Amino acid sequence: MDFIKQKNINKKIYTIKNHAGIKYIRYILYKSGLVLRDKYDEIEFEADSIITINKKNIKKYLINKFIFDLGYQILYLKQNNLAITYFNMNDIVIINDDLFLFINPEKIFKLNKNKEDKLVSDEAVNSDEEVNSDEEVVSDEEVNSDEAVVSDEHVNSDEEVYGDEEVYGDEAINSDEAVNGDISLQGGLRGYPLKNGISLQGGLRGIPLEYGIVNKTLIRKSLFISPELKNILDNTLVYYTTSVFSLAKIILYIFDMKLETLESTKLFYFLKRCLKIKPEQRSILYV
Predict the structure, then answer these.
(1) Domains of the chain: which residue ranges?
(2) With contact defined as beta carbons under 8 Å apart, do 211 and 237 qualify?
(3) What is the CA radius of gyration of the chain?
(4) Where are any strands of DSSP class E within 71-184?
(5) Does the pTM of the predicted model rise above 0.85?
(6) Which residues contact 217 (CB under 8 A, 6 or more apart)?
(7) If you average pLDDT over each of 13-17, 153-157, 250-254, which comes out highest?
C-alpha cells in the first residue's frame, strides 16, 4: 500500500501525493469527511484503519457497499472521460471498515473516442486480418463465472464531459436531489452528488466518449480481467465497461460466491449484466 503513507501512527493520519491522477480519490475522501488538509503536494486525511482487501478481512454483509462504492468510482471516472482497465486485490483498500476505495491510478485510461471511431478502428483491424489471413485471430471467449476476478491517465474534472446519449430506461438523477444512504433502486447512487443525466447505467446525456486506447504493456495476466483485454492488440479501442466485467468477477471471488447459486436474486441479475461478453451490452444496474 505504498500509494498511501502513514504520517502519524498515534493520530492515525495518512497522506497521498496530490496530483491530477488522484482527483477522484480526493473527491471521495472529501465527501466522506476524512480530509484534514489539502496541500499543494499532498492530501492529509484521518482514518482509524486502512487495509487491503482479502477474503479474510471482508465482511459478507458489506457486499452492497462494495458494489456501490466501486460502481460509483467507475461512473465518476466515466463522467470525467476516464475508465479503469481492471481491478486487482491490491488495488482496493477498506477505510474505516466500510469505505472501499480504488487506489491505482496507473490502471486508469483516457476515454477520447466515440462509437463512430470504434467502427472505423474495427474496419482497419478487419482489413489487416484479410491481408494476414494466415495469422490466428483469437475471439473473445466467455469467462466462467466461477473463476476468480481482478486491473491509465490523469483525472481532469475541469474538462467538458459528455456521456451516453441513451440511459436505457434509468431515470436521470437531479444534481440538486438530496442524497443519503447507500443507493436508489432507480439507478442513482446515494451518498454522493451526481451531475445531471447520470445513472447506474453509466451514461451522461450528450455525445458519448466511451472508448479509449489501453497500453497493452500495462496489462498483466489476471483472474479478474475482461475478455477483451486478454488478447489486446496495439491501438485497440477498449470500451469503458472493461472494469464493469472485472468488478463482477472480483465480487464473486472476494465474497466466495458462485453465480448459479444466486439465481433469481437482484445480485444475480446485477452480475449477469456486468458479465456480458460484448462490452457495449454491460451495465451497472442493481435493481
Answers:
(1) 5-130+144-281
(2) yes
(3) 19
(4) 82-84, 92-95, 99-102, 108-110
(5) no
(6) none
(7) 250-254
